[in-house]
Design brief:
Chain lengths: 157, 709
Amino acid sequence: MSEANALIDELRPVGETTQFIVIRLGDEQYGIDIKYIDNIVRMQHITRVPKVDDYLKGVINLRGEVIPVMSIRIKMGLEPDVETKSSRIIILKLEQQGTIGVIVDEVKEVVTLENERIEKVAYDSKDEKANFLCGVGKSEGGLISLLDLNAVVLENV
Amino acid sequence: MDVSQYLEIFLDETNEHLQSLNTQILALEQDPENMDTINEIFRAAHSLKGMAGTMGYKRMQNLTHDMENVFSEVRNGNIKVNADMIDVLFQCLDALEEYNTTIRESSDEGTNDNSALIKRLNDIMNGGSAPEAKEEAPAAKPAQAPASAGGALHGIKLNESQQSVLSEAIKEGKNVYGLTVKVQESCVLKAARAFLVFKAIEETSEIIVSDPSSQDIEDEKFDLTFSLVVVSDAGLDEILTASRSVSEIEDVTGDVLKLEDVNAGVASDEPSGAAEVPAETAPETPAATPAAPEKAAPAAAQPAAQNHAPAQTNAPAAKKTANKPVVNRTVRVDIEKLDTLMNLVSELIIAKNSLVSASAMSGNSSQAVNEQIEYLESVTTSLHESVMKVRMVPIESTVNKFPRMVRDLQKKLGKKMELYMSGEETELDRTVVDQIGDPLMHLLRNSADHGLESAEVRKQRGKPEVGSIFLDAYQDGNNVVIEVRDDGNGIDTEAVKNKAIERGVITPEQGEAMSEKEIIGLLFNAGFSTAKVVSDVSGRGVGLDVVKSMIESLSGEVEVKSKLGEGSTWTIRLPLTLAIIQALMVEIGDEKYAIALGSIQTIEDIPPADVKLVQAKEVIQLRDLVIPLIRLNEILDVPSGKNPEDNLVVVVVKKGDKMAGLVVDELIGQQEIVIKSLGKYISKCKIISGATVLGDGEVALILDANALI
């Protein structure tokens, strides 16, 4: 951990917590900061949009609004999504990109992590997945990789 | 007083008044003697002053006050309008506009006193008016108002039959009165008040003639005053009291008409000597008008000099009000509220579509249900149309500032030019009108700077010295077309080509192969300007590409036609509405797409054998036209569900004069669709212009025919 990070951790008020929604992608569990989540909807028909990056699965109709949906799996270089009964689309509201849906294999639970139990991950350019993480949280259920949403939705250049 | 709640209204109205001042002062420059224009200007300046004063914007009030003084002197004929004065006035308008902007941003007028301007205004005033001129000026102009009738007639001209009726009445011993009624400035329903006055007077008297005519008064085609000649048995005071009892009537003045007055009304050359000055000639001091009825008779003795003023202002006022549109009853509505309404209507249409498809799916729908659905359909369609109409505003508000701009350009560029506009009343969606101003301004500047030649060159070429720029707007089907045309030099395609090669936009070989049209298209590339000198009018090379992208962002398109030496025409084509369109739904593979009905020419059923190859591209021949085919399943990467042996379903679309045939699998039908944006996140796909929600809740993409061609 860098010195700067250590300093930030020290300055953080003790006892403050952040809530995460725990999702499953394949065998791994990931956490998404609850403040970005607008909605969680069941898997539905996604209208394909031609001539776009393959991780963009298309658009859905969310109560009259047309929302783009992306696959985190493809973006992270995992196996393509297999739609099951537990598949969900999480609707995220981001400042820059607006409203975007992401496909996850399962939504498990909501966890509350004390901020001191969140550890930054060291940047490792070899591990592609790590580029999409902003930290690791320790909870009773084990380790949860916390997704860096801005990196996840960032357009491939 | 807390005036913040009026701020919005104040700003809006100030804008309107400024715009009107701009237009009127321009008109004044052309025709410095026109009293209508001067009066109009005076009124706008006066209202501005009043409004600024109410809102507590002292600096703005001071400036408008001095402007008003100048106009007042002009109106009284004490100073003449000259070019220098017009310039100062325009600078004043700019300063006022600045105040307005500052107020909009900070609700404070700022600290700029514009004392230099005020001083120049005062100079103009002092230079032109001697104090006693006020009295003399009107007298100096009797020749200009030969039609002035006797003052007692209140400016009314009688025809012979009216005259004989009146003469009869007087001979019979009845009383004939001339009345002038002045309505309060704040009065909203002037016509209604006038009607009440008519009614009150008619109880005791008979109205012989009125000025303006009773029809015009009913239509509110009058300013604040109107005049009547009545025959009555009752006394003058009785009539005056009766008519004054109508509320919102500021004053009623009257005189007893004698036989001479009546006769003078017809043989009107000779100014007769009985009048008082109606209040309207002295708007600043209405209370000072010596208009009390008791004084009316003695007033007859007043010097003849004064009574020309009423007649003079009355006659032009009547003329002007005739072409002034009837005041509309309007409500100012926040555009956001309209957007909400529009969204709700869109939702309703989606819900209606769902209902239609649900009833079709269930299969056993009764006739009653179908009838109700049809009824619902017609209601939603009318609702949509009404909401669209509410959002439509004439482009006038945007294009009205252009004459002023062209005038400024003329001075700046040292060229002579004239702007002719038509179709200002053409209506477009409010959001489009708001955004179309900048592109149009760019094109006009472009025409003025690059298009028109200098006066000398024009003379040599045998053209009139004054260049013409035309701005024409009209509706064409579901589109609104705005054309900017000039009779200047046109586009020198050789120069454009050389420049493009020089800039490295194209290679010389490419240049050789390019058609004239393609070369002109290069102008829309970023960073392209052929002006040899960069001026502050145009020539930074950021113009045309911005124009193009702005118009495309409004789902419109822009085209140029040009002939070297004769001028160029820029044509902007915009859709009437942005939100809801009629579309043809088609199926390709298992996907549904919508194509805007506006761009579709025809739908053809083509046997595969009729598809020919030209330069390795598939084309079809249709009524002597060779149309390239676009296989949508290939472009959209969808496996086609059709047997290649089957006939092709070809949707022929048109963009400008280019056509293309889109091959689809299946036609589903025509539908009203609500356009939804795909959002910033999916902006890479150029051939999709948006998405829509279908009746079954699925999303269908809208194909952009323009991008496909």
